[in-house]
Hints:
- By secondary structure, the chain is an all-alpha fold.
- 72% of the residues lie in helices and 0% in strands.
Amino acid sequence: xxxISKLFDPYSRQARLFPGLLTLFPIILTAIAWFPRLVTSSxxxxxxxxxxxxxxxxxLSVLSRSRGKKxxxxxxxxxxxxxxxxxxxxxxxxxxxxxxxxxxxxxxxNVPLFVTPSPEQERADPKAADAMYASGVKWLQERCRGKAxxxxxxxxxxxxxxxxxxxxxxxxxxACLAALLISVLTVVWRYDNIIPAVSSFSMSALLAAxxxxxxxxxxAICVDLVALTAWFTVVRDDWVRDAGDQFxxxxxxxxxxxxxxxxxxxxxxxxxxxxxxxxxxxTRSRQTRSEGGES
Length: 295
């Protein structure tokens, strides 16, 4: 039995591996339902072990991430930026004005060279304003990682899971359709009476023919139909955006709890300006991961 906890860290399992496994789940379930010896036979277990050893699970997680990153570019263009940046804008209404002012004040106090754009400046040059907000978010994100910030880590993994699953949606839909096709062809091949029962338009004959099909196969077909429905009704752009907003809420809330050592705070404009410049360089060197999700 493969212990995936030894192959992937918690974030990679939830945000990268699980979306890939869910995408292939209809195919796997259908194969097991119609060919149960794949599970009980020793060669089936050997095949799984060899595939895992050859990097199948790792390749699946890489595919999941790459597909998610691809769809993320489109989503960010449609949203107008990262949710955590959007939430800091004056013109947005995600945060009450007092809370927004408190977060801006936190960044001014702690982030080197951060100057809160006024509403007028934001309207005149929205790109420059967003760049300033993004610098504050990046600074905050680098200091709110790890087990000390469980809610941020949880929402970050949730966003990664939804984003990657959205990226895998075309493959997931194709997998469901393929699984249903396999089931239909297998039913026609194994049960000769199913076609005459359907052609007769007799409900009793149809029910009798369906009763002959083994329950595991019927269950697999039902799961495939539910999965296909979920791909279209649940895995949507707004589903990903909701996770992005939840991550933004959790990350920005750290402004009220994060304790920044006095030595790490930028120097005031009238005192030792070189220190602010040095702190800025150190902060930039740590900004290596993307905002709002995995790198």
